[in-house]
Amino acid sequence: MASLPNPSLSSGLSEGRRRTDALREALATRVVVADGAMGTMLQAQDPTLEDFEQLEGCNEILNVTRPDIVRSVHEAYFEVGVDCVETNTFGANHSAMAEYDIAERVHELSESGARIAREVADAFGARDGRQRWVLGSIGPGTKLPTLGHVSYGTLRDGFQANAEGLLAGGADALIVETTQDLLQTKSSILGAHRAMEATGVRVPLLVSMAFETTGTMLLGSEIGAALTALEPLGIDMIGLNCSTGPAEMSEHLRYLTRHSRIPLLCMPNAGLPVLTKDGAHFPLDAEGLADAQETFVRDYGLSLIGGCCGTTPEHLRQVVERVNGVTPAVRSPRPEPGAASLYQTVPFRQDTAYMAIGERTNANGSKKFREAMLEGRWDDCVEMA
Fold first, then answer.
1. CATH code where residue 183 lies
2. CA distance 195 to 209
3. Is residue 330 in a domain?
4. pLDDT tens across 331-350, in order?
5. Which of 41, 73, 309, 313 has an alpha carbon 20 to 30 Å from 229's alpha carbon atom?
6. Per the domain annotation, does 344 fall within a domain?
7. The model's pTM
C-alpha cells in the first residue's frame, strides 16, 4: 500500500518555500539588514564550563545546553529592527569540532542552532506580521586545505553535514562566511549544494570572504581571483565580512560592483581591533558603521548588510535607521571572462601576441621547463605551455 503524505511535513515545506521566496524578493528590491557579532555577546553572559560540557570556548555547544543564552542574542538583534540573524553555528564544521573530539555532532549542533533562530524569528513575525529570516552560518573551520592541513573531501563532507543540519533546523539561506582559502571556500559551496540536493530544500547560497589589511585573503588571493573562481559555482550572492572595518573594504567592493554578475553583501568589523590590557577593542562606533553602510548601499548597490566582530545591537539599530528607505544604487557590472590561479585573475584579452595558460610553465615547479628555458629551447617551452 502506498504511504499517505504527511500533511505537517508538506505544510512545513510550503512555509519554508514561502519564506525563501520572500527573502529572494527582498534581496532583489531593497537592502536587507542582518545582525552583528555573536561570540562576544554569548561570552558576555559568562557561561560556565559545565555549560560548555567541559569544552571551553565551544560556543556551538550552547545551542544544546543553554539555548536561552543563544535565544537572547537573537532577540536583542531582532528588537533593534534587523531583518535576519545568523545561526550560532560558525564553528559547527568538521575541522573545528574535531579539535574538541566531537566531529560526529556537526549535524546535531547545526540543526539545534538553526532551530533556535527559527523559533525567535517566527515569534517576532507573529508579533507584528513582519517576516524575519534565518541565515545558516557556515564558518571556515580551522584547517586550510591549500596548505595540506586536511583533505578536500573531508572538509566537503563536513560542510555538507553542517548545511544539512541548518536546513533541517529551518534556515532560509546558507551563508559561507569568513572564508580565507579559495579551496576551503569551494569545499563549503559544494558541501552546501550537496546538502540541498540530499534534502530537496533549495535556499539562497551566499558567500562572504575575509580580506586582510594586506588587501588579499589569508593565502594571498586577490579580489579578482576570488570572484573569477567562485562566481561560476552556483552561488546567489558574494561579498565581504570580518578581518577589517569598512574603510579597508571599500576598494574591494568597488571591484565587485563593477565586475560581479550577482548581488553583493558586506558585514564589516567595528574597525580594526586595538589591543589593550583588557583585550581587543574595536574602535568604530555605531554612528561610524551606519555612515559606512549607508555609503556602501548608495555607492555600490549592496543587497545585504550587517556587522561582524565588535558590532552590537546598538550598531545595528543605527544601521537599520540609516538605511531605512534608502534605495541601493543600480549596478551596471561589466563582467570580464578570465582564468584564475590561487592568487590572481587573468582576463581573456587577446593582444597582438598569443596568450598561453599552463601550470607546467613554472621554473620553480617544473625541472623540465626550467632546463628548457635556461638552455634557450623556446619551442620546447611553447610545447609545454
1. 3.20.20.330
2. 21
3. no
4. 999 999 999 999 999 998 87
5. 309
6. no
7. 0.89
Task: Count structural domains, the chain.
Answer: 2
Query: Are 288 and 373 members of one domain?
Result: no
Q: What gap in Å lies between CA 301 and CA 286, rounded to an integer?
A: 21
List C-alpha distances in Å: 245 to 26, 143, 234, 249. Answer: 26, 24, 28, 7
Residue among 93, 76, 64, 68 nearest 38 (CA) = 76
Residues 314 and 364 in one domain: no
Which grid cell sits at 310? 565588535
Provide the residue range defining the domain that includes 359. Answer: 350-384
Whether 88 is in a domain gets the answer: yes
Co-location of 379 and 312 in the same domain = no
In the chain, which residue ranges form alpha helices assigned H by DSSP? Answer: 7-29, 39-44, 62-65, 67-79, 94-98, 106-128, 152-169, 182-199, 223-230, 250-259, 286-300, 313-323, 367-374, 378-384
* Cβ partners under 8 Å of residue 371, min gap 6: none
SS3 208: strand
